[in-house]
Design a protein that fits this description.
Layout (H helix, E strand, L loop, with lengths): L6 H10 L6 E2 L1 H8 L3 H10 L5 E2 L5 E4 H25 L5 E2 L1 H8 L3 H9 L7 E2 L5 E4 H12 L1
Antiparallel strand pairs: 1-3, 2-3, 4-6, 5-6
Helix pairs in contact: 1-4, 2-3
């Protein structure tokens, strides 16, 4: 017979101080997950969370079922953050030397164009460090070409 929950869920439950087979009522589950009872009911109807139906249609949850739901939510959240980071790769910071190579424009011309509003604004990286967003510089280059 297979395990009901993964080792990851067991470790997460242990870290949270939740017994894997601890029973939770609908109200207790909503407090644990910090959402409304209506949200819990919707999750059970949509199959988004495991539960047990006992006498008279009362629904209870085991601790591992709630922790599995939390773990799934965390993994989805992390996946969306990773996709946002990878899609914003063009928004990395370029330093002066990289900007000069990319644009073919001298340092003094970059300053002059920036002051007149014709070049993207710099990004302060520290007290004496600056850079430009790569996407801004590429947009500027595309505008110049057209």
């Amino acid at each position: 017979m297979g395990e009901l929950f993964s080792q990851e869920v067991a470790e997460l439950a242990d870290a949270m101080g939740v017994a894997l087979y601890q029973r939770f009522s609908m109200q207790e589950a909503s407090l644990f997950l910090r959402c409304s009872v209506e949200s819990i009911e919707l999750l059970t109807k949509q199959g988004g969370i495991g539960y047990l139906s006992v006498v008279d249609g009362e629904i209870i949850f085991f601790g591992y079922q709630l922790v599995e739901h939390l773990n799934g939510s965390i993994q989805q959240s992390q996946a969306s953050v990773v996709s946002e980071v990878s899609s914003s790769e063009d928004d990395r910071i370029l330093r002066m030397q990289e900007v000069r190579k990319l644009t073919g424009v001298s340092r003094s011309t970059i300053w002059r164009l920036e002051k007149s509003g014709q070049f993207p604004r710099r990004v302060a990286l520290g007290l004496s460090s600056i850079g430009w967003l790569k996407s801004d510089v590429l947009d500027w280059l595309n505008q110049r070409k057209s």
